[in-house]
Design goal:
Number of strands of chain B: 8
Number of domains of chain B: 2
Structural class of chain A: mainly alpha
Low-confidence stretches of chain B: none
Oligomer: heterodimer
Number of strands of chain A: 0
Largest sheet of chain B: 3 strands, antiparallel
Order of helices and strands of chain A: HHHHHHHHHHHHHHHHH
CATH superfamily of the largest domain in chain B: Cytochrome-c3 Hydrogenase, chain B
Distance between the termini of chain A: 12 Å
CATH topology of the largest domain in chain B: Cytochrome-c3 Hydrogenase, chain B
Distance between the termini of chain B: 25 Å
Number of domains of chain A: 2
Strand order of the largest sheet of chain B: 1-2-3
Shape of chain B: globular
Mean pLDDT of chain B: 86
Helix content of chain A: over 70%
Structural class of chain B: alpha+beta
Radius of gyration of chain B: 21 Å
Chain lengths: ~450, ~375
């Protein structure tokens, strides 16, 4: 980085202390408040717990009819869903900020540095700006579909949060078909994109919509097959069930206890990149080919909704990957007994239980951020593949490999049934291999940096 | 009135006709293509030029000889040094002027820096068109240093107006040589980093190798020049084969396309020839700075330039290939005719033939691999 850029970056050090404090307060406070609300409300999403809590609060619930109890329960669920969606939006905004900061460092740029410390509030400023813009509908567009498309996308995105775990008890609804449900509702996003592409009455948008349909539908197959691997290993479709069947330590994670699961993770990761329209699969909105793809004609808040979903999906895909392959929220040294013991026997759990919940949430968020960061790195490093290469990669490579991995996992499960120690051996060996790979990666990075005469330097971050 | 070009489009079938430009992000300036597509596959792309025509050649006949020099910057604003030099050389031939050695050397130094800057933009925008944004900004970051150097040399960062009829405008500022050498030391390492970052990236190679192949004979027939011609495996460089200025004094290789990852003449060859040329430019600048002679920076030129009636042709190897200035004098202080032959125009002509059967994404790769610059097409 040359000295000019460095001087500009150093400007962030001169930010007033009040601004830094406000930024830190909002940056940590907003998600924490929202998650705390989820934490408080999610146990209440069970009718019995809700009634007990209302009873404890001094409301005479015994006099309520069954319908009344249901109404109270539905209200609690709706509030919970709203908070989850807000959390999704906040996370999506913060992802934008994180991505822009990382990318500006990768590209020797200054990046966000105006609104708040380190430009943290840029996503809020952007959203406000987009809200104030004119909501334009092209003259010859199919106005109804054009207006409706963002809602499909937002619905598909919002519904995912219902079954997305954040901690031991932090899940809006732990369905017994969790991962299946998530795969199903995310398909709504492509419907929205296709509608957007078609209704815009623009050739570029149509190109983008068609590409997106071909891409997302194709990649659902390897993605679904890869997601079946951890499902088979844990014997349940429930998100919490999959996490509970893994251990807290890395060598107990699905990704490592079965060598084929690591391959499945690779397939899942690539397929999710494609489904989320992320580089190298950002063909539907390839700006150098299709101007802006299906977004070409959108402006104002409808555009913002598409963007919110796109960046929120980053979080969603990382969270799903962590759930399926990397042990989710499992905290080392804290087993299910510890949670049960901390909960106590009363109607409402004890203080220690709440502490453990927060701990599990932090573990989950940390793991998700690591995966998310990899996605950001990938986006700002790789070029885009061509549309036929995208199809070839899916049908000729990912789908067959996913089938092989699927069958191999079946055989592996039979081996484990006979020889339970093989899971531990595989876990240890694969984890060691992963650590060595990571170390080699960092060594190579270091060498690459020193080869141009630079040094590893985090001071201007 | 119907646009003439629309008559060329076959409207009898159900193929989609797309206006690829003039405000398309990857046409880099105002170029339009009428694209007939069948889904993702192109039937053909018809280039539609003329959006940036500024009558520069006509201006050359209206203003006096020295007065035209700043206008030549606008012929190719990404590599303005060569446009300056070509015009200066043509008028010097008309005047039968001998340019002092130091001026020749300074011209080479400035030109080669300009070539690096232009190629950085060329390969950078190419990576951006393929979808990788980071290499472009790395390239522009290095170009920024070159801009600073050239600004120190002549006060301008883009439209240099550095060359003069009979020499150059300014001598090297104090300490410039050390700064330039320090940058070149860094830049040679940067080229390796750039290759690691993008050139040999699997996706990048797969996107460019074997795409839009222009065989050598076809390139010659269409009059391609410069890196585009050399990318097709034709070994031709004006700097070496028709030496001018100080170039015979320096050792450098002329990289040609060998089908690095596919067929000779594919997009990757055209891309990588530019990367290799940057290393050679750096080599030339080092030699020139090493052997820079003392002396005048400009020949004695009369204030009122009035060449004898006659004509002169000067060819220079621009960043975009051979650039020829043809100047006709009628004995007055204004040229009778100025004609500029530029590489981008012939590169545009070949697009229609090469684009048959490509995909939309390949068309973007083809346009950027030819490194077409809008002002150079139309002038």
């Amino acid at each position: 980085m040359n000295s000019k850029t460095q001087d500009l970056c150093a400007g962030s050090g001169k930010t007033a202390r009040g601004v830094v404090l406000a930024t830190l307060a909002v940056g940590f406070g907003l998600p924490l408040v929202l998650l705390a609300a989820v934490l408080l409300l999610s146990p209440l999403s069970k009718p019995a717990m809700l009634m007990a809590a209302l009873g404890a609060a001094g409301v005479n619930v015994s006099g309520w009819s069954v319908t009344g109890q249901y109404v109270a329960w539905i209200v609690a669920i709706a509030v919970l869903a709203l908070i989850l969606l807000s959390f999704g939006a906040v996370i999506s905004g913060m992802t934008v900020w994180w991505e822009m900061r990382v990318s500006s460092r990768m590209q020797s740029r200054v990046g966000y540095n105006r609104v708040g410390a380190a430009g943290f509030f840029q996503w809020i400023a952007d959203a406000v700006k987009l809200l104030l813009k004119e909501d334009l509908v092209p003259a010859d567009a199919d106005a109804l579909l054009f207006r409706a498309a963002p809602y499909f996308v937002l619905t598909g995105f919002g519904l995912v949060f219902v079954a997305l775990p954040f901690g031991e008890s932090l899940i809006a609804a732990d369905m017994n078909v969790g991962i299946f449900y998530i795969t199903a509702v995310t398909a709504l996003i492509v419907v929205g994109i296709l509608i957007a592409g078609w209704s815009s009455n623009s050739k570029w948008a149509l190109f983008g919509g068609m590409r997106s349909a071909a891409q997302v539908i194709s990649y659902e197959i390897p993605s679904g097959l890869a997601a079946m691997v951890p499902v088979m290993m844990s014997g349940t479709l429930s998100m919490q069930g999959i996490i509970r069947s893994q251990g807290a330590w890395p060598w107990e994670w699905h990704a490592f206890t079965n060598p084929f699961a690591l391959a499945a993770f690779a397939i899942f990761f690539v397929a999710q990149l494609a489904e989320g329209n992320r580089t190298p699969f950002d063909l539907p909105e390839a700006e150098s080919e299709l101007v802006a793809g299906y977004l070409s004609e959108y402006s104002s808040f409808r555009f913002a909704l598409f963007f919110l979903v796109e960046f929120g999906n980053l979080w969603v895909m990382s969270a799903i990957a962590v759930t399926l392959f990397f042990g989710g929220w499992q905290v080392p040294f804290v087993g299910p007994e510890a949670f049960a013991a901390a909960r106590g026997v009363g109607d409402l759990p004890g203080a220690a239980w709440w502490g453990l919940q927060i701990l599990s949430m932090l573990v989950f968020v940390a793991k998700t951020l690591v995966v998310l960061n990899v996605v950001v790195w990938v986006r700002w490093t790789l070029p885009r593949i061509r549309v036929d290469q995208m199809m070839t990669l899916c049908w000729k490579y990912l789908v067959p490999i996913a089938f092989v991995v699927f069958v191999a996992t079946l055989l592996w499960q039979m081996l484990i049934a006979r020889l339970p120690v093989s899971a531990t051996v595989s876990g240890a060996v694969m984890f060691a291999a992963a650590v060595v790979t990571a170390l080699l990666f960092f060594r190579q990075t270091r060498q690459n940096i020193s080869a141009v005469g630079d040094r590893v330097d985090f001071t201007n971050w | 009135m119907d646009k003439l070009i629309l008559r060329r489009v076959d409207q009898s079938n159900e193929e989609m006709i797309l206006n690829f430009g003039p405000q398309h992000p990857s046409t880099h300036g105002v170029i339009n293509f009428l694209v007939e597509t069948d889904g993702e596959v192109l039937k053909r792309a018809i280039p539609d030029v003329g959006y940036l025509h500024r009558s520069i050649e006509k201006i050359g006949e209206i203003v006096g000889y020295p007065g035209f020099m700043p206008y030549t910057d606008r012929v190719d604003y990404v590599a303005a040094m060569f446009a300056n030099e070509g015009y200066a050389m043509a008028v010097e031939r008309l005047l039968k002027l001998e340019v002092p050695a130091r001026a020749q050397w300074l011209r080479v130094i400035a030109n080669e820096f300009c070539r690096i800057a232009s190629h950085l933009v060329g390969v950078g925008t190419m990576t951006m068109d393929i979808g990788a944004f980071t290499p472009f900004l790395h390239g522009v970051r290095e170009r920024e240093v070159i801009n600073d150097l050239i600004e120190a040399l002549c006060g301008a960062r883009m439209t240099y107006n550095y060359h003069r009829i009979g020499g150059v405008a300014f001598d090297l500022p104090e300490g410039w040589r050390d700064k330039a050498l320090a940058f070149l030391d860094h830049f040679d390492k940067f080229l390796g980093e750039f290759d690691r970052l993008i050139s040999f990236n699997e996706i990048f190679v797969k996107r460019l190798a074997n795409v839009a192949v222009i065989p050598g004979p076809m390139a010659v027939n269409y009059g391609l020049v410069g890196p585009n011609l050399r990318g097709s495996g034709v070994d031709w460089d004006v700097r070496r084969d028709m030496p001018y200025g100080a170039y015979p004094n320096f050792k450098f290789d002329v990289p040609i396309g060998k089908g690095f990852f596919g067929t000779t003449g594919d997009c990757f060859d055209r891309y990588y020839v530019r990367c290799l040329e940057m290393a050679q430019s750096s080599r030339i600048i080092r030699q020139a700075l090493e052997t820079l002679p003392e002396g005048e920076i400009s020949a004695k030129v009369p204030r009122n330039i009035k060449p004898e009636a006659g004509e002169a042709l000067a060819r220079v190897e621009s960043a975009r290939g051979e650039m020829a200035y043809y100047v006709v004098s009628d004995g007055t202080n204004k040229a009778y005719r100025v004609r500029v032959r530029t590489g981008s125009f012939s590169a545009m002509c070949i697009i229609e033939d090469v684009s048959r059967g490509l995909m939309v994404a390949d068309l973007v790769a083809l346009i950027s691999s030819l490194d077409v610059i809008a002002p150079e097409i139309d002038r």
